[in-house]
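Cont'd.
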Amino acid sequence: MIKTKALKFNYNNQVSFNFPDISLNKNENLLIIGSSGIGKTTLLHLLAGLLQSNSGSINLYGQDISKLTQHQIDKFRGQNIGIVFQKPHFVNSLTVKENLQLAQYLGNKKDDSRIVDILSSLDILDKENKNPKKLSQGEKQRASIAMAIVNSPKLILADEPTSSLDDENCERVIKLLKKQASDFNAQLIVITHDNRLKKHFKKSIKL
Amino acid sequence: MNIFKLSIKNIISKPLSSLLSLALLVFGIGIISLLLQLNSLIKTQMDNNLKGIDMVVGAKGSPLQLILSAVYHIDSPTGNISVEDAKKIKNNRMVGSSIDLLYGDNYKGYRIVGTDDEFLDLYDAKIKDGRKWEDPFEVVVGSKIYSNLGLKLDDELMSSHGLRETGEAHGDQLFKIVGLLEPSNSVIDQLIVTSPESIWDLHGEHDHSGEEHDDEHDHDHDDEHDHDHDDEEITAMLIKFQNPMNIIQFPRQINEETNLQAAVPSYEISRLFKLFGFGIETLTYLAYLIIIVSAFSLFINLFNSMRDRKYEMALIRTLGSSRRQLSFMIIFESLILTTVGFLIGLLVSRLGVMFVSSLMEESLNYNLNSFGILNEELWLLILSIFIGLISSIIPALQVYNLNISEVLGDE
């Protein structure tokens, strides 16, 4: 269950965002849609515990994360939330597999067979010992999805996963995300300005 | 995978800048450690050879030269003194024991010393094979000589006149090896030892001493075969006092009242080290300066790489790393580099010691071999760790205070 209430965030007392309340049951996915500058990324960072709200509450699976310390939030995020960024990013001194092992280490989970499962379900198992810099764009995107789901998170947050893609690839990526989420029993929240995604979600919020 | 491994991977992934910060540290640590090693090795070697010698008596000249020639066997002797004069000193009640030394010949650059049995005891030298010399022209050979030149018992040596290899050969008389000495890690390892009579007999026909003093000793040699050696000469005399207190008064008395020279080895050597010490000190300061520069270079390296990897840091945080873990990653990177730098520095200094030792072996027949870790080198390790901590503090703090939301929003 995911519930937010009266979320509010100020940047330097000048820009302030008031976010609509979110309420999501288990196994429900959500699309949050809005144009640029309206605070989409801010909302995603609030949900991920990367930012602290000025007021309001965020309840993720029975845990009010606005009441946690920085250290506890970091731990909670590592174990329960996977994030897919707009541009795929990796630790470049590590191979794809080592990146996933690092994610597992930081999330307190160690399971090499799961890494193999995920990489093969994303069809990039043959790239596991490559440096992420050497992957193609499509492979990078899939590897970054692998990073987000390797710790079996309850929630996957995706920030503009399709904004720079053509229609065909957009279709492919969103389907992949949804499939991975349901295969691994995670909820998916996508934040985007991309109207093409609307048809893939039953539930959506406009900012 | 863990934070420590991640630090190692980070270092390996940017080999050039890691090498650069490492090189300066290796250089600085290497120089200091080399100086420490050489200083300690030379001092041990010098002290080892000083054991049991309170005073050296020889001909007038430079006291340091007298010490270097008679105790360390690396300089030319100052000249010769008559046995009669030497006897007067020996009979003084302040003298505990004394050993005569006679030079004049060498074999392939190794000095042949005519002396008494006590000379072997002075260096705790034991006979490994064979026996001590008894008759003239029987010699006992130091360990370095027979192992370097491949000599064995009963070999015969044709000596050359003087103390250097270039002297004319004495074609008429051969020395016979009757004993080989065990290694003693002192000067005796590179000496050929024989009785004083061997040297007297060898030079009896023309003169009594080393090549430098050919003209001064135009004695009449009518009595050369009466074997009462009272008007023969010796080169120097090693003396141990009855009472160590005599070291103050007795040498001065000799220098003022006789035409002999007395020199105190411990005093001369500490004077020599003071001269050395000045250069060593300057070089040490230079090396510390290099280490400080290496700390700066390490800091800049970490600082830059941290700026380049800002997004990576933010990513690692979103994966669940705490701020402290991330800071440790930076500190580990720095500590690994400085510790490796320290180790390579030690390795370099050991290679340096080997090199210097081979040079000394060639020119002075001296060698230094000990590769233990000195206490001062443990201080260098602590210094390296300190440098690692200092140069990583600011980058680590910056990583600690990284605003991940801002970095991720910036992409």
